[in-house]
TrEMBL record, chains A, B:
Belongs to the ROK (NagC/XylR) family. This is NagC family transcriptional regulator. PROSITE patterns: ROK. It comes from Bifidobacterium margollesii. The lineage of its organism: Bacteria, Bacillati, Actinomycetota, Actinomycetes, Bifidobacteriales. It comes from the Bacteria.
Amino acid sequence: MIAPGSTHASMAELNRSRIIRLLHLNGVSSRAHIARELSLTPAAITKITAQLIDMGIISETGTLDGIKKRRSIGLKLNESKYRVIGVKFARSIIQIGVFDLGGNLESVQTLPPVNNDDIPGTLEDITVRVNHLLELDPSIVAIGMAVPGPYLRDEGRIAVVTSMIGWQNVNFLDEYEHAFRVPVFIEQDARAGALAQSLFNPNASSNNLAYYLVGEGVGLGLMDHGNLINGEVGAATEIGHISIDVNGEPCECGNRGCLERYCSAVRMHRIIDESGLIDGSASMTHADACLALFSHLGNGDAYDKLLHDLATYVGYGCVMIINAFNPRQIVIGDILSQAGQPLLDTVKQVVAQRVIPTLSESTEILLSDLPADATLSGAAAVAAAQFLEHPTEFVEQQEPPVS
Amino acid sequence: MIAPGSTHASMAELNRSRIIRLLHLNGVSSRAHIARELSLTPAAITKITAQLIDMGIISETGTLDGIKKRRSIGLKLNESKYRVIGVKFARSIIQIGVFDLGGNLESVQTLPPVNNDDIPGTLEDITVRVNHLLELDPSIVAIGMAVPGPYLRDEGRIAVVTSMIGWQNVNFLDEYEHAFRVPVFIEQDARAGALAQSLFNPNASSNNLAYYLVGEGVGLGLMDHGNLINGEVGAATEIGHISIDVNGEPCECGNRGCLERYCSAVRMHRIIDESGLIDGSASMTHADACLALFSHLGNGDAYDKLLHDLATYVGYGCVMIINAFNPRQIVIGDILSQAGQPLLDTVKQVVAQRVIPTLSESTEILLSDLPADATLSGAAAVAAAQFLEHPTEFVEQQEPPVS
C-alpha cells in the first residue's frame, strides 16, 4: 500500500522517467521541446533537468537551431555513463553481456554449451563471472536475466522446459536475488526480447509489438498499447504451448500438438540429422546445425524445402499471434530468424493465406536486426527499463538528488 | 496532443473517477477511508466529494462506526440516478436493455430473430426503439453497443462474421455515432462481457480476467492487470479464429480449423439436428435448440455425450486461453454456459489433463452468473465505464461542476 504523501514523490520520479525516456527515444532535445511533448511547465522542466544533470544521467550539448530562429541548449541522455549486465539463459546456451543504457553491447562472453548435468556448475560459473564484471566496472547499476518461459515470476522457477528438464529444478530468485552488489531483474526470454525491440530498435518503435522467439524454444513477448502482457503469474503469451493440432503428439506440458514441437531449433536439428544433408550435424549444437543448413539455402531444393517446411509452422505461429494479440509489428528473432529472407517469405505467404486481409495487410512482419542477440539485449533491456523508470533508486546511493 | 495546462484538469477528473470507482466497488465509505485508500489529502477529498455531491453522482448516508469509536459520515454512489442503454448484437439475436450504473437491469426488449436480409430494417428498428427509450427517460446518459469480433474499431465494421455475412456490410459508426442525444460507445462483444464481469460481478473481481463467450460465435475478452487487451485495430483476443487443427476445415476468415467451427451454438444446433434427438429442432433458433438439449441432460447417454463432445472443444479453448493469457479467472458465458455444471465439469477435466499443474490449479473457471446476459450487461458496462472514468463529460451539460 502506498503511504499518504507519496503521490508527490512518485509524480516527480514519473516526470524524471518520462524525460529520460523521451531523450532516449528522440535523441538531443531542447527544454522547450520536452515541455511541449510532455505537457510540463517550464518551471518543472528547469527543476527536473537540473536534478538529472546533477545525477549525471543527462547533460547539456551545444546550442540547437529552434523554430523561429531562436537558439536553445540541447539536452542528451548520457547513455554510456551507466551500464547494465544482461544474462541470457537458453537451454544449452548461456551468454553474459555488458550494455550501455542505449542497448549498445560493450562486451559479451558465451559459456560452454550446457547439458542437464552441468546446470549447478553453470549457475556457480555465472555468479563468478558476473561478480568479476561488477568488480571491474563500477558504472554497472543493474543486472537483467532472461529465462525460458513459462517463468513463474513470484516463485522464481520455470514451470516446464521441453527437451532440457534440469532447468525446472533451478530457483532463479534463491540463486541470484541477493548474489550481487546491484539488483537483479528476471523476465521470460521473449518478453525481455519485446522490451529490447521497444527500447533499442528504432525500426520497431510501435506500442503494439510482438517479439516472436524461435530458437531452442518457441516463445512470445507482447506489448499491447505499451503494456507488456504478463498474466496472473507471469505465464501469459506462452505460444510455444498453444496447440496447432489438438490431436497431435503429447508435449511435456500436458498439452498435445504444441507449436514448439513443430518449429524449434531442436526440432530443426532433428530433421537435419534425419535428412543427412549436413555432414556431422549430429555432433553439432542445435544452433550450429541450423546455421549450417541456412548457409546452403539457394544451393538446392532439398535444403530449401527443409527450411520451407519449418518456416510454414513459424507462419502458423504468426497467424496465431495475429488472432490472439493483433500487434502492429511481429519481430521474429533467435536462431531460426538467421535463415533470413527465405524464412520471412514463407511466413508472409502463410499469413496472407490464413489471416483476414485487413489484418494481414496492417501487420508488419520483420526479422530482428538488433546488433546483439535479441534475448541477450532483452536481458539488458529488463535492467535498463528499471533504471529508466526509477532512476533515483539506482543513483541516489552515490549522489543524492537535489530535492 | 494534450494542451499544456490540461494536466491539472485531467488530474482532477482522474481523482473524481477514482473516488467513484472505489464507491462502486466497496459500497458506502467514509471520507477518511477514501483518503487512505487513494492516498489523497483530506483537503482534496473534501473538495472533490463536494463537487460530486453537487453533481448528484454521490450522496451522504447516515453516520458510520469508525475505528477507535469515532463516527463519520458515509458516502455512497447514486447508482440509480443515471442510466445507460446496452445493445447486444449477436448474429440472429438483438437485445436492448436499460441499466443503472450498478449493472442492474431495469428493462429489456428482444427484437425478432434476424436473418441476413432483415439487417437494414433491424438497424432502423434499433434507432427507433433507442430514441423512444431516450425520450421516456432523461436520466439515460450514454449508450453502449456490443458487436461480434473481429470489430475494427476505427473503421466501425466487423471484419468477418461466420455464418451470417450480412453484418460485414454494416458500418456501426456511420449508423449510430450521431444518431442519438447521448454518446454511443461500441465494443467487441466478449471484451464488453469482460468489462461487465469486472464492473458488475462481485465473484469475478480479479484484475486478470477472461470472459469466454460461447454463443452464436466464440469470442474472448481479456483484462490483464486491469487493462483490456485490444490490439492495434481492436482485433486482439479473437480466439474463435485461432486454429486447433492447422489442417482442419477452411473457415471464412481464411484460416483452417478455427475453434469457432467446433464449439459455437451454430455448430451445436447442426449436430442436434443431425442427431434427431430434439423434435422440431431444425425450425428452432440456435439458442432454443441448445436449451432444449440442455433440458434433457441427465436423461440419457445420447444427450450427455453430445454435450460432452462439444464441451471438450470448449475446454480446448480454455487451454488456449491459459497458455496465451494466463488469467486468474475464466468466466464462461452466453448460450453454451447455460448447460451448467456438466459443461463446467468437462471443461475442467480437459484443463486438468492439458495444462501445467501450477497453472491449472491457479486458474479459476466459472460460469457467468450475472442476472442479465453477459454481453447485454457488457454493452451497458462499456457505457458505464466511460461514465465512471469521465463523469463530468456526461453530467456537466446539465449541472456544471463547482470549479
